[in-house]
Amino acid sequence: MIRHRAESGVRVLILLAIGIMAGAAAFTHVHDLTVAHGQPDWIGWANAVAVELMAIYLGLELRARRRAGRPVGLVGVLLVAFALLSLAAQVAEAEPSVWGWIVAAVPSLAFLALVKVVLSSAPAPAPEPDQPPVDWTYEVPAQAVTEPEQPTAPAPAVRPAPAAVLPPLGVVQPNRPQVVGIIR
Question: 86, 77, 81: which is closest to 107 by C-alpha?
């Protein structure tokens, strides 16, 4: 139990360290790119907050929708778009070389990987409470009194249901939409 708690605590500390460092780098790159393209300083920070936190929110929304069995298409597309926007800001601020782009992309990719790992981990199942064992033995009474069986009347024959009633051919216009079910 103590080992499990210690391991969980170390995992949380690692996740926080990676999240804070990668998030700070990503925020800074988005801010610097915004300011470098003529926006005031406060708009640079607003853009950084919007881009980076939107990706986190969309990850949470995606998980909630999957749990509820709701469609996730649009949320998934938006998540990819905001992740690419963050990654583009990282790379745009980098030295124009392959290694510069790779090194600049690391914070954004680490942050996205962290969000993915945290959001895709399933919660541990709740332990079942201890219950006393159930006695499933069945005792047959020593003298079972049985009544003689009465002959039963044969069951009435079940007739098949009539076929669906359809209008004669030519009555329904082919260009008219048909109501198939209840629309909600």
Answer: 86
What's the pLDDT at 170?
61
Task: Give pLDDT, residue 184.
Answer: 44
The Cα-based distances of 163 to 97, 159, 160, 166, 182 in angstroms read 74, 12, 9, 9, 22
Pair 49, 34: CB distance under 8 Å: no
CB 89 within 8 A of CB 30: yes
What does the block give as tokens for 57? 């929110």
Q: Return the structure tokens found at 156.
A: 């009435």
**How far is C-alpha 14 from the geometric centre of its chain's CA atoms?**
24
The tens digit of pLDDT for each residue in 108-118 reads 787 777 767 77
DSSP secondary-structure letter at 3? Answer: H
Tokens of 111: 């942050």
**Which pLDDT belongs to residue 60?**
84
Burial of 2: CB neighbours in 10 Å, binned 0-12, 13-18, 19+: exposed
Burial string for 99-116 (b: 16+ CB within 10 Å, else e) reads eeeeebbebbbbbbebbe
Helices (H), the chain: 2-36, 41-68, 73-92, 98-120
